[in-house]
Automatic annotation (TrEMBL):
<feature type="domain" description="Thioredoxin">
    <location>
        <begin position="26"/>
        <end position="212"/>
    </location>
</feature>
<dbReference type="GO" id="GO:0016853">
    <property type="term" value="F:isomerase activity"/>
</dbReference>
<dbReference type="InterPro" id="IPR036249">
    <property type="entry name" value="Thioredoxin-like_sf"/>
</dbReference>
<dbReference type="InterPro" id="IPR006311">
    <property type="entry name" value="TAT_signal"/>
</dbReference>
<dbReference type="InterPro" id="IPR012336">
    <property type="entry name" value="Thioredoxin-like_fold"/>
</dbReference>
<dbReference type="Pfam" id="PF13462">
    <property type="entry name" value="Thioredoxin_4"/>
</dbReference>
<comment type="function">
    <text>May be required for disulfide bond formation in some proteins.</text>
</comment>
<protein>
    <submittedName>
        <fullName>Protein-disulfide isomerase</fullName>
    </submittedName>
</protein>
<dbReference type="InterPro" id="IPR013766">
    <property type="entry name" value="Thioredoxin_domain"/>
</dbReference>
<keyword id="KW-0413">Isomerase</keyword>
<comment type="similarity">
    <text>Belongs to the thioredoxin family. DsbA subfamily.</text>
</comment>
Length: 218
């Protein structure tokens, strides 16, 4: 599966930065830090800043496990925890193979703009399987771009945004170094790591525990 030569590949842009494999481990918490992760450049956020619990998700638009979690779990997660003010949700972009597709999807979402960023992410995840099956990655993303009002020329320009691509690479490199992210999806619930697409009740337990834990306590 490749993007059309007009897009990210073949434009002279640098090779995409550090990327994990699409492998996802069974969810297994590490030692609790019981403190939210500090803000990072490029964070996209939903929920009240007053929420007691911060959930950070590192995800890749080309990761099938991330797509499954988005398509099957996220809407319930949002209704139960974000919309009720219990959780402040932070989405952080990561890259897995095919990295070009993931990066292109993020460039598209940022071109559409912050107000509809999560709508674009949701659209890519929901159409990911069909796009991969068609092997027309360019055409699949172009269709999504047009559904958000972009012309083909605007879409092409978005995917050829060298500064935007460099920024994505920098964020991914920092994530790998700072938070030791290797797999997607990776979640941090008030700083405690969970790897894999967790079921909603696992999140419910982790969120309840985090809400009752004082900062600095394990």
């Amino acid at each position: 599966m490749i993007l059309d030569r007009r897009a990210l590949i073949g434009t002279g842009l640098p090779v995409l930065g550090a990327a994990a494999s699409g492998l996802v481990l069974t969810a297994a918490p590490t030692i609790a830090r019981a403190a939210p992760l500090p803000p990072a450049e490029g964070d996209m956020v939903l929920g009240s800043p007053k929420a007691k619990v911060q959930v950070v998700e590192y995800a890749s638009l080309s990761c099938t496990h991330c797509a499954h979690w988005n398509n099957e779990v996220f809407s319930v997660f949002k209704t139960r925890f974000i919309d009720t003010g219990k959780v402040r949700y932070v989405f952080r972009e990561f890259l897995t193979e095919p990295t070009q597709f993931a990066a292109a999807g993020y460039l598209l979402a940022r071109r559409v703009g912050p107000a509809r960023y999560f709508q674009v992410i949701d659209a890519v995840f929901k159409q990911q399987a069909a796009i991969f099956e068609s092997q027309d990655l360019w055409g699949g993303l172009l269709k999504i771009g047009k559904s958000f009002g972009l012309t083909e020329e605007q879409f092409t320009a978005a995917l050829q945004d060298k500064a935007g691509l460099d920024a994505i690479n920098a964020r991914v490199d920092k994530a790998a170094e700072r938070d030791k992210v290797q797999f997607t999806p990776t979640f941090f619930v008030n700083g405690q790591r969970y790897e894999g697409g967790l079921p909603i009740e696992t999140f419910a337990g982790a969120i309840a525990k985090a809400a009752q834990t004082k900062p600095g306590k394990g």
